[in-house]
Amino acid sequence: MDTVVTDTFFLEKFADRTETVWTRSDASQIVEHHGAPTRAYGALYSNGPIHSMNIDRRARLPDDVAIDILYCGVCHSDIHMIRGEWGEQPFPMVPGHEFVGRVSAVGQAVTRFSPGDFAGVGCMVDSCKAGLEQYCTKGTTVTYASPDPRGPGRTYGGYAERIVVRERFVVKIPDGADLAFTPPLLCSGITTFSPMQHWRLGSGQRFAVIGLGGLGHTALKLAVHRGAKATVFTTSADKAKDAYAMGAKDVVVWQPAATDPIPLAEQMANRFNFLLSTIPLPFDVAPFLPRLRQDDIFVNVGAPGVIAGVSGGALWNQRRSIAGSCIGGMPETQEVVDYCSANAIRPQIELIRPDQIDESYLRVERKDVRYRFVIDLASDRIG
Ligand SMILES: [Zn+2]
């Protein structure tokens, strides 16, 4: 049985609608209360606007941590999910898979957290695996829109005032960390840090990131901090100045549809040790593979669909590889949060209120965000 929205909510919200999304009887079937309802922000149907709504969080188990959420990032995946661009999804949906807050209560088996501690949650809340939780072959429980093995319904994400999460999936936020800047590290930070660790991006290596958005700008900052010589491929000429300010040595403005999409083709042949693509949509990688050096690698962390333009010859020539990487495990997620706090690596954010979420989605789609929106959920509680 799902736990979601009260039917009074439906009656109020849909009193003036001509289309029927759900009837009162549909709504009453999914209503189940476990104490006080939690205020959340989500969509009632695919591609719908973000509404304020009430959800029920599941009961706390002995190894669970309850968190009052303070800041939640807006990830491009939230938009793909709401829009139905990654296939059919369950609704209502409360997105949000990068957030921090203050621990309000802990179960008796919890050892790492106490009430009052700051804590963060990323893209996963349960898994069959330990260490590389994201590669659970039974299906990782993601932070929202997943069947919840610990609760009566589905998972609902961090666009909400509170949540209950298994301790093993909660990250400690170090003392002194900038809370508002921390949420993006729990998705874009770990997604770009993990392949750099796995394939050992080192000082002096030539690194390039393709796409300078939420993931890409975090990748750039992480690579520069490791001492890599970083190049940025971006389709937005007006981001070049920012890229240089973040430490890029070169910026290439490219257009995927152009016949010669990379104007500096000759100079960049056999140049890079590590190409990291953060582009969330399918694009042609043919221009990029010949830019890799011998034995070096192209890693996709963005596009979920077909990767076009992979030439067999471009791979066997210079023994190049193409690979993918999915977020990162919980130990590594803790590591990237600690590392960024200790080294003052901060994503660049724009703070918004919950009533600006719809607008923020449109701006992400227009590539008009520098570089991650973070929702200030406490502002709503005070206001
Ligand atoms: Zn994300």
Automatic annotation (TrEMBL):
Highest taxon above the source species: Bacteria
Residues that span the membrane, as ranges: none
Cofactor(s) it depends on: Zn(2+)
- Provide the Alcohol dehydrogenase-like C-terminal domain boundaries: 214-338
The answer, when asked if Transmembrane is one of the entry's keywords, is no
Q: Name one GO molecular function term.
A: zinc ion binding
Q: Where is the Alcohol dehydrogenase-like N-terminal domain?
A: 62-175
Keyword terms of this UniProt record: Metal-binding, Oxidoreductase, Plasmid, Zinc
- Family statement: Belongs to the zinc-containing alcohol dehydrogenase family.
Q: What is this protein called?
A: NAD(P)-dependent alcohol dehydrogenase
**Organism taxonomic ancestry:** Bacteria, Pseudomonadati, Pseudomonadota, Alphaproteobacteria, Acetobacterales
